[in-house]
Design a protein that fits this description.
Helices cover 35% and strands 21% of the residues. It folds into two domains: 47-80, no CATH class; 84-293, 3-Layer(aba) Sandwich (Rossmann fold). The chain has helices at residues 12-18, 65-71, 107-124, 148-159, 169-179, 196-208, 221-224, 247-271, 285-293; strands at residues 37-38, 48-53, 75-79, 82-83, 86-92, 128-134, 138-141, 185-190, 212-219, 231-235, 242-246, 275-280. The protein is an alpha/beta fold and 300 residues long. β10 (231-235) and β11 form a beta hairpin. The chain has a six-stranded mixed β-sheet with strand order 7-6-5-8-9-12, sandwiched between helices. A two-stranded antiparallel sheet has the order 1-4. It is built from nine helices and twelve strands.
């Protein structure tokens, strides 16, 4: 008997409830296989194509109950204007993501857990999804997967990845935009430690290429409200530079600066049509996924 493999970033207690969620887009998408999403290639006429068996995770309202009454089988009607979604999950793997203080894990581990959940959700609903890690460039890009079986090796590769190096989000997003040849749903997971206007230029590049962009701004609670007092030596995880500060004197100014950064990034993202969410690493992964999977478009 084959040995079962428990994935670090997708444990069963997270994977099982994901089958009850659905991830969709606001824009029409193009794809090569049948799925749950509307294609821009057809007009108002909707032509019936075929039936397929209902599988766990499908929305119950898709079942053709008239067919069930005749055959005692749960079947779903598929139409020619339904097409699969192509998605890309971009995960920041720069050294700053290795930070942990208040949260139960590092920002990188949280990003990987969130990425794994979205990848699993996408393949379970019949869509194609790919993963890329980035720092100041796209450092690793994996081939798209479209089944739970092909997702397994990708999850193991995630477990072997370690955050390292300096990041430059704008450059990495420009590169990612140039690599994509068809319309995608692009999920960006990062701590966004860069000037908001620079980050926004990368996001705008993706938006201008007609991709739908969702931004997840990941924060450890200590980054918003540092539990520090007295003289403290800070060390930059990417540059290794050190700075001695009086935490008491800078606490209020620091809090205003962090909130200003968040507010400006939210304003720029929503201004160019991207969804924006802030996520504390203490937020359960299922709750974080449900924010987008349930179609919420308001910022967190």
């Amino acid at each position: 008997m084959a040995e079962a493999h428990s994935f670090k970033y997708l444990p069963p207690h997270v994977a099982d409830p994901l089958r009850g969620l659905a991830l969709s887009t606001r824009r029409p998408m193009q794809g090569a296989t049948q799925g749950l999403h509307r294609s821009p290639d057809f007009g108002a006429s909707v032509e019936f194509a075929e039936y397929r068996d209902y599988v766990p995770g499908d929305a119950p309202n898709l079942i053709d109950w008239a067919v069930y009454a005749k055959t005692d089988r749960h079947m779903i009607r598929r139409f020619q204007d339904e097409t699969s979604l192509r998605a890309l999950v971009l995960v920041d793997a720069s050294a700053s993501l290795g930070f942990r203080h208040t949260g139960p894990c590092t920002k990188f581990d949280y990003a990987c857990s969130l990425a794994a959940a979205f990848l699993y959700l996408l393949v379970c609903q019949g869509d194609s999804a790919s993963l890329s890690f980035f720092t100041d460039r796209v450092t690793r890009a994996f081939e798209p997967v479209a089944s739970v079986e092909t997702l397994g090796p990708l999850l193991r590769e995630m477990e072997a990845t370690v955050p390292d190096g300096a990041g430059h989000i704008e450059k990495a997003l420009h590169e990612a935009a140039e690599r994509l040849r068809s319309r995608h749903l692009v999920l960006i997971l990062s701590d966004f430690l860069q000037a908001p206007d620079e980050i926004a230029r990368g996001i705008q590049h993706l938006q201008h290429s007609r991709h739908e962009v969702v931004v997840f701004h990941l924060l450890d609670g200590a980054e918003v409200a540092p539990p520090l007092q007295g003289l403290v030596e800070l060390r930059d995880l990417e540059t290794k530079e050190k700075l001695l500060i009086d935490a008491g004197e800078l606490k209020d100014a620091y809090g205003r600066a962090v909130q200003g950064h968040i507010d400006e990034l939210r304003r720029l993202c929503t201004g160019c049509g991207a969804d924006y969410f802030t996520l504390d690493t203490r937020t359960p992964v299922l709750d974080a996924v449900a924010k987008r999977a349930k179609g919420m478009s308001k910022s967190g």
